[in-house]
Amino acid sequence: MTVQERTQVGIVGAGPAGLLLAHLLALGGIDSVCVEARSREYCEARQRAGMLESTTVELLRAVGLGGRLDAEGLEHDGIYVQFDGERHHLNFRELTGGRWITIYAQTEIVKDLIAARTAAGAALEFEVSDTTVTGLDSDRPVLSYTDRGGERHVVTCDVIAGCDGFHGITRRSIPAGGLTMLAERCYPYAWLGILAAAPPSTDEVIYCRHDRGFALHSMRTPEIGRLYLQVPADEDAGRWSDDRIWAELATRFAVPGWSLTRGPVLQKSVTPMRSFVAAPMRYGRLFLAGDAAHIVPPTGAKGLNLAVADVAALATALIRLTRDGDRELADAYSDYCLERVWRSTHLSWWMTSMLHITPGQDQFESELQLAQLRHLVSSRTAAAMLAETYTGYAPLRFDPTTRLEAARLWPSVA
Fold first, then answer.
1. d(CA 116, CA 63)
2. Cα–Cα distance between 13 and 45 in angstroms, integer?
3. Burial, 359: exposed, middle or buried (Cβ in 10 Å; 0-12, 13-18, 19+)?
4. 289 — phi, psi (to 5°)?
5. The domains spanning 2-50+105-180+280-358 and 189-273 adopt the same CATH topology
6. Positions marked catalytic
7. Domain limits, the chain
8. What gap in Å lies between CA 96 and CA 202, rounded to an integer?
9. C-alpha distances in angstroms, 41 versus 150, 254, 393, 411?
10. pLDDT surpassing 50 at residue 138
11. What is the pLDDT of residue 384?
């Protein structure tokens, strides 16, 4: 049996981008249907990013999603940068005139969003299959899917939003020639990440450049640590016992007078390092957001924050388009977002290149890395440039109610 339906915005993907988009659209009085191939349980358990820019935090608070974030999030003034066996603190709050970062896991944001959408009685479907998007160059694109009960849904939309990640179907549904750029860089190393029942050994995140490879010490809660090691790109996590991981982390993070707190490893995985940008982020009535359009290596903590920035802009544009027939922001959406995407891509590439040891790296390259790091920790100007982009270099503009001109709402596209 096939069910014919109608909505204003069809959203493919119930990760943070798709769920937040549905939430913001609802604030502007716009209906949506959001579909996801995976189960709710999977989406709420999948470990991903945990570092939020101050601009992301401010947006989530402004749209009613700050309750648990404010109660459980860990607010940090800055980060530590470690190299040559010395650890240096960069105070972002001082360097930027007040901006900060917050540790709050993506899984928790997804839980908050699912709870909010469910409480609102939203059209939110998990475990769908055979999802397709068609008619993208028409005024009535169609989202089709089969629900977990086997019923086929054909949903006529005003707009479709592709929030289904790098491997999703929406970007691949754009016909040949619809994308003018597919830029990609794969790095010759990966991150072995662990979630551990070990209280963090640090008050703020540590980025460590070591001759044996990069290491990152982060956290999820005051009781749960999140730590990473640089490993070969094709590494098998099964080759790393818990003892081996802790020993290697202790070696890379070693500084006088400091010790690493150990505990049971709860999860273990290998994350490839990749940069990817697709442009434009729109084809006809299909708009891409988040990982469907771009991916950055996790070094700069930009992936989730870029998705939130995309969605804040996209929600405003789609509210104007579907409610008022105003195309100005929809037409500007891709250029506006790509400016932030490329700036964040540069930050992630720069931090990745400066902190990781490339296979076969020679002394010349190593000394260049160390020279950059010494400059970073000794120059207020250099540190401020990092702090500005890391904490969110521009406010996230979501404006569902007023009719600000594009030049005032998004000055960069004027």
1. 11
2. 16
3. exposed
4. -145, 150
5. no
6. 76, 207, 298, 302, 390
7. 2-50+105-180+280-358, 189-273
8. 22
9. 20, 38, 34, 40
10. yes
11. 97
DSSP string, 151-173: -EEEEE-SEEEE-S-TTSSTGGG
pLDDT band (50, 70, 90) for residue 52: very high
Q: What band does 398 get if pLDDT is binned at 50, 70 and 90?
A: confident
- Spell out the residues 6+ positions from residue 25 whose beta carbon is closer than 8 angstroms to its own: 8, 9, 31, 32, 315, 318, 319
Answer whether 82's CB lies under 8 Å from 88's CB: yes
Q: What is the pLDDT of residues 221-276, one digit of tens each?
A: 999 999 999 999 999 999 999 999 999 999 999 999 999 999 999 999 999 999 99
- pLDDT-derived band at 410 (thresholds 50, 70, 90) equals low
> Rounded mean pLDDT of the chain?
94
Domain 2-50+105-180+280-358: CATH superfamily is FAD/NAD(P)-binding domain (3.50.50.60)
Retrieve residue 145's tokens: 């899917």
Q: Look up the CATH architecture of domain 189-273.
A: 2-Layer Sandwich (3.30)
How far apart are alpha carbons 294 and 182 in whole angstroms? 9
Q: Specify the pairing of strand 32-35 against strand 123-125.
A: parallel
Torsion, Cα of 244, 207, 107, 186 (10° steps)? -80
* The 101-103 sheet, strands edge to edge: 51-53, 101-103, 74-76
